[in-house]
Amino acid sequence: MEIQHPNSTPLSPEEQQLLTTVRERFDARMASGGLSSDDVRHLQDFLRGHPHASTAVITAIAEEARQRFPGQGLINIDWS
Fold first, then answer.
1. Full-model pTM
2. Residues 9, 77, 48, 27: what is their CA dihedral angle, to the nearest 10 degrees?
3. How far apart are CA 10 and CA 28, in angstroms?
4. pLDDT by residue (tens digit) across 35-55?
5. Residues sharing a CB contact under 8 Å with residue 19, sequence separation 6 or more, in sequence order
6. Are 41 and 32 in contact (CB under 8 A)?
């Protein structure tokens, strides 16, 4: 799934790799029943410390998570 936003620039190869890594984690969690609050916490910690976790990548990850795990309400990218 490609997520496009008006006036956005394409993700760099490094950002694309990060998105692929998170998608693989989502695939694994989908196979085992969904995201737990611990999974979300670990994902947030991973992204906060990752050098390629740009706003564009985090937004794409959050949007994809909402589509893959509807109704869970666990994805919040407002870290301020």
1. 0.75
2. -80
3. 26
4. 788 888 888 899 888 999 988
5. 11, 57, 60, 61
6. no
Residue holding tokens 């910690």? 45
Check if the beta carbon of residue 1 is closer than 8 Å to that of residue 9. Answer: no
Q: In one letter, which amino acid is 12?
A: S
CA-based torsion, 25, 68, 5, 3: positive or negative: positive
Give the C-alpha distances (Å, rounded to integers) separating 42 from 25, 30, 36, 46. Answer: 11, 16, 10, 6
What gap in Å lies between CA 5 and CA 28, rounded to an integer?
Answer: 27
- Residue 69: the pLDDT is 80
Six-digit token pair at 74? 């666990």
Q: How much is the CA Rg of the chain, to the nearest whole Å? A: 12
Q: Are the C-beta atoms of residues 43 and 25 closer than 8 Å to each other? A: yes
Type of residue numbered 49: G
